[in-house]
Amino acid sequence: MRSSSLAATYARGVSSVVTSRERQAVLEELRWLCELIRSNDRYVAFLCHPGIRSQDKKELIHAAGSGHLSEVTLRLCDLLVDNGRLAYLDAIALQLSALIDREALKVRVTMKTAFPVGPRVAAEVERALAAFLKRTIDLHIEIDPAVLGGARLFVDDLLIDGSLAGELHKLRRHVAAEAIDLTKEES
């Protein structure tokens, strides 16, 4: 929870000093930098090593990002390095993306299904959610065999469980509650 809160604070800070167009560019730069760091084990080892000076870490980021990163993104990275919070870079990018989406009345929805869903079904789900939520939907589909059948929709902090696994879980709870009630009646 703390990392999410810190990341949200940094994302709001970045958002407050740039225009909406620049905000999207900073987000893309953060994603690019996260991918660059993730894809290079030497960068990860160097940037995470507690014995390496902050200035050296900043110089690496500036050199690697030369021509790719704006002044705002470089300053954010400097601030994160100085505060020992560079590990929050991914979370900050996620929070900034969520902030941009909220401003655009856009919501990210993850739909988990046991089997692949065709484009027609995905479009139907998107249309129904857009009408219900009065927002633009950014639908991401994930295959999860544990769902068994149907689908689970994750909308921000809300879970809409229309899965077979979810129904079986409800049935199991109901049967257990009935069994408890029967034992109480017999006593």
Tell me about the largest β-sheet. 4 strands, mixed
Mean pLDDT, to the nearest integer, reads 88
Strand order of the largest sheet: 2-1-3-4
Number of helices: 8
Unreliable stretches: none
Q: Using the coordinates shown, work out and report the CATH topology of the largest domain.
A: Peroxidase, domain 1
What is the CATH superfamily of the largest domain? N-terminal domain of the delta subunit of the F1F0-ATP synthase
The total count of strands amounts to 4
Write a brief structural summary.
The protein is an alpha+beta fold. The chain contains eight helices and four strands; from the N terminus they run ααααααβαβββα.
Question: What report would you give on this structure?
Answer:
This protein is an alpha+beta fold and 187 residues long. It folds into two domains: 2-101, N-terminal domain of the delta subunit of the F1F0-ATP synthase (Peroxidase, domain 1, Orthogonal Bundle), CATH 1.10.520; 106-183, no CATH class. It is built from eight helices and four strands. It has helices spanning 2-16, 20-38, 41-48, 54-64, 71-82, 89-103, 119-133, 164-186; strands at residues 106-113, 136-143, 150-155, 158-163. Helix 1 (2-16) crosses helix 6 (89-103), helix 2 packs antiparallel against helix 6 and helix 4 (54-64) runs antiparallel to helix 5 (71-82). The longest helix is centred in the C-terminal third of the chain and has 23 residues, at 164-186. It starts with a helix and ends with a helix.
